[in-house]
Design goal:
56% of the residues lie in helices and 19% in strands. It is built from 19 helices and 15 strands. Helix 16 links the parallel strand 12 and strand 13. The longest helix is centred in the middle third of the chain and has 47 residues.
Length: 553
């Protein structure tokens, strides 16, 4: 709710600070006292147009600050958080109007734009009675209001969900059809690539093995010479190392029989002999296996060259080439099933269209019944608000295609006078009539989405017993939402939870507007003034007390 409002240098207001409370806040005062300026200030907070004409004469700029208490308004807090505004249950909004009409906006202490201000604050306050910033004048809101009254919001949400699915499936099908020619070219390319890799029959680690074998074949003569020479030196030559070592071992072993300290030496020499003997035999076998094979070398060169060509196309290693083939085969599977995918999408679209048709028919029926009930209720409520001959209707326009809200648009039509055909609200309803329309609607369909409602002179043209009825209806709305109402009727003012008097004051030769909180006898005196004008008698005061007491009951 709106907790505090501070206005500086706006029109005839020098500096004004007003505190509001939950429930029904009534603003009264003589004509021209500045009540409408307070509404203009709130309108600036709603993102309304700022004009240099609003700046008080002699001042450099005008400003309006509003402090909102959003306790318990989780949806609003979530929306603010999504906009990057952390308000911790309280939101401070400031609008500054400079010469030339330029504005600066501050939300939660940070600089912001007028569009963001409008987007946020339209969820905080609705003004009824001014032709700017009103939901009743926004035709796109009429269907939503009707659906809320008709109890069709859940059905509408279900339809919207099907509509979103339908739109997504249509876009997917369109993208599929647009890409079919390109898909065919892509299919040929991928098939070639997959076949080329598959025909190569490469395996991980193969390249390293082939390179190793190629190295051996290229140096076969050197390998054979080295291994044969080593064998001859160890075992097969004229003076083999193993033959000489055998004599050495025999001599040390003989000495070891004299001195046991040489036994370990003898054993070590025997072990070395065995190892050398094994190595020499291995060298002999290796030399026998090594051979020159030009045909095999050419075969290896061809295979390594084929792998190299694949690496240039598909990856830096065999592993990467095989991973690329896996991805290609996966895409091939998808592209090969395009026709099946097309059929699935077409079937999905058809099913969703059938579901939307069924849901849309239910919505249309609920809206038709709701419009009939709304007409009866609104005309009954308007008659109680001194508009006995008012006509309220809902006009429907069937769309060629479904929208997220259904198959039809709705617009409220209104005629305040007998003999006049009902016309769109924006073209015919005056500020006072519009306020009464919303007040009537709130009796039929109370909701608390917007925390604060402002009714500007909702009682225009009303008198007698109907006046008290307006007060009762405002009080009823104020049980769910904070209500600010400007009134000239004492019967309405008597219902206030918080009564604020707006009046002009002259100081230092300049006129300024002030606001006083009225309590006790001060409030009685103001209601009495509203009853009788300038001349207040004891009888008038007693009548004022009776009005206030009756309103409290």
């Amino acid at each position: 709710m709106l907790r505090e409002l501070q206005i500086t240098n706006l029109a005839i207001i020098d500096k004004l600070h007003v505190e509001f409370s939950p429930g029904l806040n009534i603003l009264t005062g003589e004509t021209g006292a500045g009540k409408s300026i307070i509404i203009d200030a709130v309108n600036l907070i709603l993102g309304g147009r700022g004009s240099a004409d609003l700046i008080r004469s002699g001042a450099k700029e005008a400003s309006v600050e509003a402090l909102f208490d959003l306790s318990g308004r989780d949806s609003l807090l979530t929306a603010l958080a999504a906009a990057g505004i952390d308000c911790d249950g309280e939101l401070l909004v400031r609008r500054v109007v400079a010469p030339g009409g330029k504005s600066r906006v501050f939300i939660g202490g940070g600089l912001a734009t007028t569009s963001l201000l409008s987007e946020i604050c339209r969820n905080l306050i609705n003004i009824y009675g001014q032709h700017d910033a009103q939901s009743l004048l926004k035709t796109e809101q009429h269907l939503l209001l009707l659906d809320g009254f008709s109890g069709a919001l859940s059905l509408r949400a279900e339809f919207a969900a099907r509509y979103e699915e339908w739109q997504a499936a249509k876009h997917e099908l369109q993208a599929l059809e647009a890409g079919e020619r390109e898909a065919a070219r892509r299919l040929d390319l991928l098939a070639f690539q997959s076949n080329e890799i598959a025909e190569a029959k490469i395996v991980p680690g193969e390249e390293e093995e082939l390179a190793e074998e190629r190295g051996r074949l290229m140096h076969s003569e050197k390998l054979m010479a080295a291994s044969q020479s080593a064998f001859d030196a160890l075992y097969g030559g004229e003076a083999p190392i193993l033959g000489n070592l055998s004599g050495i071992i025999a001599g040390v072993a003989d000495a070891g029989r004299i001195d046991a300290a040489l036994v370990p030496v003898s054993e070590a020499l025997e072990a070395a002999y065995a190892q050398l003997e094994d190595a020499s035999l291995t060298l002999r076998d290796y030399a026998a296996r090594v051979e020159s094979d030009p045909a095999r070398l050419e075969e290896l060169d061809d295979r390594l060259d084929a792998i190299s060509r694949l690496k240039k196309k598909y990856g830096a290693s065999i592993e990467e080439i095989l991973e690329y083939q896996r991805q290609v085969d996966q895409e091939l599977s998808v592209l090969s099933n395009l026709e099946g995918t097309r059929g699935e999408l077409q079937a999905r679209i058809s099913l969703l269209q059938q579901e939307m048709a069924a849901l849309g028919a239910k919505l249309t029926k609920a809206r038709g019944e709701g419009a009939s009930n709304l007409k009866a209720g609104m005309e009954r409520e308007l008659a109680e608000l001194a508009m006995k001959h008012a006509v309220f209707e809902t006009a429907f326009e069937k769309g060629a295609e479904a929208k997220s809200y259904g198959f039809e648009r709705a617009e409220f039509l209104f005629s305040p006078n007998p003999g006049e055909p009902p016309k769109p609200l924006a073209k015919i309803a005056s500020g006072g009539e519009l306020s009464r329309l919303m007040l009537a609607l709130k009796q039929l369909h109370p909701d608390s989405e917007v925390p604060t409602l402002i009714f500007d002179e909702v009682d225009t043209g009303i008198g007698g017993a109907t006046s008290a009825l307006v007060g009762e209806k405002l009080k009823r709305v104020a049980r769910e939402q904070q209500v600010l109402a400007i009134t000239h009727l004492p019967q309405v003012a008597a219902f206030a939870d918080r009564h604020l008097k707006v009046e002009k004051r002259v100081a230092d030769g300049r006129t300024a507007t002030g606001v006083d909180l009225l309590e006790g006898e001060e409030r009685v005196a103001e209601v009495a003034r509203m009853l009788s004008g300038a001349r207040v008698t004891e009888k008038t005061l007693e009548h004022a007390r009776e009005l206030i007491q009756e309103a409290v009951r």
